[in-house]
Write a structure and sequence with these properties.
Layout (H helix, E strand, L loop, with lengths): L6 E5 H13 L3 E8 L2 E6 L10 E6 L2 E6 L16 H4 L3 E9 L5 E5 L7 E6 L1 H15 L9 H4 L6 H8 L2 E5 L25 E7 L4 E7 L2 H8 L4 E2 L2 H15 L11 H6 L6 H8 L5 H5 L6 E7 L5 E8 L9 E2 L2 E2 L4 H20 L9 H4 L7 H14 L22
Parallel strand pairs: 2-8, 8-9, 9-10
Antiparallel strand pairs: 1-11, 1-12, 2-3, 4-5, 6-7, 6-14, 10-11, 13-14, 15-16
Length: 410
């Protein structure tokens, strides 16, 4: 039996067997597939549905599918969806109520639909994003929900917990980063170094089309044992690890090597916010495609008789004017203040709330912004403005005394 930390090689036919075993086990297998001109995440019934032979061309505000001659299945960058669409769905019922025979309403809490998910093709940046949402929405990774850390989470999301609890994570390491990727400068990298059950590295050469496999959990070991595989050979391991190492040097973008927490706190009055406000459409695309943004609102749905009502939770965005609406009007009425809120929270005050940055460097917000606004460009511009004003150029450090502890103000 394969043990945690062990390695193996899975041939192309083994990938077919892997999906077949998961489907036969009653799992809902979700992975990348080509649909509507993009690589999207959808339920799979066969490995044949994976995007073999497709890559992507990325730029700020641009995404295009491109054919590949090598037939690789996972040589594409992050698409418009992330795994939060399944763990933290866009719309979810919380409860319903009906008028009882005595006129007193009867409430029924909605139960999350039991889904044994198996996520196939999770990028290392998305592994980090799932770990971040574990902290934000469930008080920590699966298995820690009864800990003191979990109790510190004021409003854990029950639906997220239930969907996440039994999910298998089959990661795919990145060997071909896109032009909008910047995970290395965001503290990550193309290698799967978080919690996963299996990690695959795709190798396509003159020998064969195969996958170098690393086992990350007991569940992953059992899954590997159920499909045809062979011991890892030195050539496959060397090619796989070399491809991942090379990907670190081929990131399309990067955040400046600064203390971003300090920079954002010191840039609340920067002129650059006015510049970005003239381009931002407040469409909220960046928050919708972001794998860590988690904000929601609630809405009531009542039938025409008034005898039945439902409360639903749905995604919301800090770019919406009503998001900060209080008595008397919105707290953040200007585009300047709303963009500043999003970026400052993502890169700075997220640390104060959750102990890490809220950005994993996947580049989705850059590619899917219709105005082509680039988060790395905006941060670099803020740094340049601070330096021009005589501020600290800010080499990488953790000078907490230099940052503002308060979040961005209106």
């Amino acid at each position: 039996m394969a043990a945690g930390g062990s390695t193996a090689v899975l041939e192309r036919e083994g990938l077919d067997a892997l999906v077949a075993v998961l489907v036969a086990d009653g799992r809902t297998v979700v992975g990348p597939t080509v649909r509507d001109g993009a690589v999207v995440l959808a339920e799979l019934t066969s490995a044949d549905e994976l995007p073999f032979g497709w890559g992507v061309e990325l730029a700020a505000g641009r995404y295009r599918l491109t054919p590949r001659e090598d037939g690789a299945a996972f040589a594409h960058s992050a698409g418009p969806q992330s795994w939060k669409a399944f763990l933290h769905p866009q719309r979810e019922q919380l409860w319903s109520a009906r008028r009882g025979t005595d006129g007193v309403p009867v409430f029924t809490e909605a139960s999350p639909e039991p889904r044994g998910y198996a996520f196939l093709g999770v990028r290392p940046c998305d592994l980090r994003a799932i770990a971040i949402q574990d902290r934000v929405l469930a008080g920590g990774p699966p298995g820690t929900h009864d800990s003191a850390r979990a109790r510190d989470t004021a409003t854990p999301d029950r639906g997220y917990r239930e969907r996440r609890r039994g999910a298998l994570l089959i990661a795919v390491e990145c060997t071909d980063p896109g032009a909008t990727c910047f995970c290395v400068s965001a503290g990550g990298g193309p290698a799967a170094d978080g919690a996963f059950d299996l990690a695959l590295t795709e190798v396509v050469d003159a020998d064969s089309h195969r996958f170098f496999v690393r086992v990350g959990s007991a569940a992953g070991a059992r899954l590997l044992d159920s499909v045809p595989h062979r011991p890892a050979d030195l050539r496959t391991e060397s090619v796989a690890r070399g491809s991942v190492d090379a990907a670190r040097e081929r990131m399309g973008r990067s955040l400046p090597p600064l203390d971003l927490r300090a920079l954002m706190g010191e840039s609340l009055t920067a002129d650059r916010w006015d510049d970005v406000a003239t381009r931002c459409l407040a469409c909220a695309n960046c928050t919708m495609v972001c794998p860590t943004c988690f904000c929601t609102t609630t809405e009531e749905v009542t039938d025409l008789t008034g005898d039945h009502t439902e409360r639903w939770q749905r995604w919301d965005s800090c770019f919406d004017l009503d998001f900060s609406l209080l008595h008397g009007g919105p707290v953040r009425a200007s585009l300047r203040s709303r963009y500043r809120q999003w970026l400052t929270h993502k890169l700075s005050t997220w640390h104060d709330q959750f102990g890490s940055s809220g950005c994993v460097g996947c580049g989705r917000c850059v590619a899917w912004c219709p105005a082509g606004i680039d988060i790395t460009e905006e941060v670099a511009a803020l740094a340049a403005e601070r330096n021009a004003a005589g501020g600290d150029p800010g080499t990488a450090h953790d000078d907490r005394s230099a940052r503002h502890d308060k979040g961005p103000q209106p």
